[in-house]
Amino acid sequence: MDRAQKEKVVEELGQIFESSGVVVVAHYEGMTVAQMQDLRARMRDAGGSVRVAKNKLAKIALEGKPGASMAPLLTGMTVFSYSEDPVAAAKVVDAYAKTNDRFVILGGTMGNAALDPAGVKAVAQLPSREELIASVVACIGAPAAQLAGAIGAPAANIAGILSTLEEKAAA
Predict the structure, then answer these.
(1) pLDDT per residue over 87-124, tens digit each?
(2) Which of 14, 116, 28 is nearest to 76 (CA)?
(3) CA count, 13 A, side-chain hemisphere, 166
(4) Residue boundaries of the structural domains of the chain
(5) Is 40 exposed, middle or buried (0-12, 13-18, 19+ CB in 10 A)?
(6) Domain 3-126 class?
(7) How many CA atoms lie within 13 A of 110 on its CB side?
(8) How far apart are CA 45 and CA 104, in angstroms?
(9) What SUPFAM superfamilies does the record point to (predicted)?
């Protein structure tokens, strides 16, 4: 890899570290190509990505970035899993680590906060952005539905009374 390619990789990694909601670092030593492709597919389905890079280049890219605290984790065969959604990558990585003992979570970052393996698990248990949006919409919509029901109830009662009176008058 020549100097220009290295500079490009450092720039790409820098953008990943700045723009991602969460970055998880893990060891993947001993994993097969098929297992790595499975991890990539799961991450892609969740809206995230997986990136393998040289630790030296990643450390250079981390300088001055919000996730600089994870530099000590970059030893051995490391892989970065990241997503814009602060929960998606952590959920996928946590689930994958439970099924593959060769995939070991080392930690990561969420914004400026450093995460240890327990922190990654805790983030993985949080609801995703879509789940939070759905619950907020439900909370906002519930009072409106109750209000519409309360407004419509008297009219329905009056209509019921009128139809009963009509039936009695017709009989």
Answers:
(1) 889 999 999 999 999 999 999 998 888 889 998 998 88
(2) 28
(3) 6
(4) 3-126, 127-171
(5) middle
(6) alpha beta
(7) 17
(8) 21
(9) Ribosomal protein L10-like (SSF160369)
